[in-house]
Amino acid sequence: MLEKFRRGEHAPHLNFEIYNEATGETLSSLGDENEFNPLNNLAENRAPRDANGHETAFFFHIRKSKGGAVKNIMTHCFNLRRAEKIASPESLTYVDGVLNIDTQTLAGLQRAKDTNLVDSGLVDVIVTSYFFGGMMLFNPTHQGRAFTFLPHPVYQTESLYRSLKTRYPENFDGVDLADWVQSDAFNDNWVVRSLINQHSGELTEDHLIVAKTILARKFVVGISQYPKETFKRLVAYYGWNEVNGDGFECMNHFLNLENDEDKMFEGKIERGSDRWRLLSKVNKYDMDLYYYALQLFAKQGATLFGRPYVDKDGVPIDFKKLRDEKAKASMEALMNLFQAGDEMTDENEMTDEMEAFLNSFHAGDE
What we know:
The protein is an alpha/beta fold. Helices cover 42% and strands 11% of the residues. The chain contains 13 helices and nine strands. The chain has a four-stranded parallel sheet. The chain has a three-stranded mixed sheet with strand order 4-6-5, covered by helices on one side. A two-stranded antiparallel ribbon has the order 1-2. The radius of gyration is 21 Å and the shape is globular.
């Protein structure tokens, strides 16, 4: 159904696969016109809020994307109740303001579903790294409103490698970053796979189109490189109330703590280096999704939050021109490389102007 759409376009209908986790076998593929499609458990990001309050925020936590800071900020700066296993055994009690229920494992999510956590009124936000499992806690009459923070896939992969190597040195003895990302232990294109619920097998451009459409329709998109601007949007979108009127001062405190921790796993990968190209290649679809997310981040600033499509100088942004310039730059680079007899540069290096644009993005009073 999707092959008739060009790369980068939204498919008008979403196909979502339900698969057997043990065997990887596809059990069914549902379009969003099907009432049983689990994506119907999530509200469209531009849909009006439910007047009766039958909605709950849903944070899809992508690894190494400031998730620890986001959770602390929600708990301590905005007094939002969330679930996380703090002590054993699990219980419907709060520990330091957090409901002691596991939402970071599939087994825990199933127990949360069995106890009807979303409808219990015990949490204000669901936090999990399992998009599909988290989505299944909701239903069409009590939907989730999703948000996420997307990290740059190259930096995320390097940071994750360094973190895992520090925590499990025995598993990484003699295993460098290049070895790891080319081994069966590495989960390539983790974000795209999570969104489309396909955790094994080859990915195609059609899978990427579905992932892009889910992100565009179902998420308030945040970028981990721009956490303050992202949080300003989340506070406005969800109507969160600051604790003691110092929510953003509190937020800065936890973001600074997270930045200090990030420096422990900060790497030295240079753009255009062999390692950069390798990580871009193995995460090709996550790279494409990330650059698309940067565009969504800018566009949602206008469509959801009244921020204009302008750069820091107040000049309107012409996204078509950006795409055309990217295509022209890619072609010129390709011709130059052919003339020089060199290897072709990774295509994602041609899209860095989107990041450069966002660095000059007019982010209000940030």
